[in-house]
Amino acid sequence: MNKIYLYIILCILTAGFISCEDNADFSSLHELTADEIAEIARQDSIEEAAKNKINANLVLEYSVDITTSGTLYDGVSLPIDIDQIAELFGLTEEEVLAGIAEESGAPEIKGFAMEGETHSDVASATNTNSTWGHWWDADNKITTWGETAMVFAEFDYETGEFAIGQYPGHLEDGQTLEIIEALKYNELRVAVVVTINAKAPGQVSAEVVSTQNISVDVYPRLGYDADSIEFDLDQALTDLGVSSIDEVSFIGVNEDGSYNQEPVIDGVGFWYDLNGYVGSWGENASFYTYYGEFSDNEISIGQFPGNITEEQTYDIKYGIFANNKIVMLDFAITVVPYTNPETAPTGDPQALSSDITLSKAYGDDYASVQADIKETLRDAFKMTTYEISRAIMTGELKLYQGAITETDPEYTSDVPGYWLTAEGTAGGWGESLVWCSIGYTETELYLYGGNHPANAVAGNSVSTTYIATLNGGSVTFNITFNID
Prior knowledge:
CATH architecture of the largest domain: Sandwich
Helix content: 10-25%
Distance between the termini: 66 Å
Largest sheet: 5 strands, mixed
């Protein structure tokens, strides 16, 4: 309620209070005196000060800038003054870090946060992947990863630094947030106040000082494994005027000719669309570039499985950027047929059956076991491993549970495969005990699966039938899956 009107009501109810005399005329508003206005202002000031007060014995304040991104969770690393925290707590820096890490025998240091305008405590130590750290929304309140998330703070107890990052596409240029991460040891409290300033990335207008033209032949891969492509690293570093690859960043080329500074693969790689420009993972993707998987003078070039076919050509540009200079790696890619080391078995496709038992110890994760089925499938379909694997990738091979149907199978686990209920029928994740699928590479074909971490227990045994069809042949797998 408005304080002035509350004051008037109190005047009405309290006889003889200040100027509200007996038999006074209350048909008009009471006019506040200068003393009364001053008192209300004092009370407001006290209330505001209490609201803004941070309940901590030590307040550490920092300010960081984050470059906004539509695709990356990137931000900055923020070292905090562990020495001051250790001094307050009466511990060593090593003990503080061990306590935050919740190591056995370490001091019990509780991580938490303080919210928004109220500065009230939020008891959870974390909702990130660390023992201390939180996601925050636009009102400086604790939230979770998702629609309302703006930034996160995630503490690394090995380095003593916070990773301050963002939810891709949510921050806007000029936006400012203030978050408060906190620690408690016994009755002592520390608040880490971080002001986060969002800034849009600047446009790259650097000169391309040299171009390395590299011809590449690749075959259509069945997975995301990359080919290693050599480039002249020493020449690139010389042209950029740097002594180490650690001093560079990587850029891509957008369709409009501008440079893309947001590598979406670990901060060093890009996905490219079917026209060879920077794009995204998915049905319109062709290749990706990456640095760091192989030797220092090698670039990884991988594919989106199923989108690449023989006799296609692509031009992919991957820039190395430093000192406002660019060395452009221009890859001319030709897709060539796979050189198959196998020959298909002779004869006509046939109907075969195979009894398979998979056994694994119960695990609280999705670790799998597998059985080799390559020769059985080759013999049934009269095809090579690569041909069968490619048919799995394209969906030409059908894997039915229980019986062949007139409609295409609807897989519920890794394709092609199913989650299986206790009765051995195809089910959803929430109702099933185990999962079982066909796995493949250019040279392997195997049946693999694991247990549901929550639904399965040691001693479960699930029996089912899978029927794989391709090229006029079929294989009926009678599967028993034991959880030991």
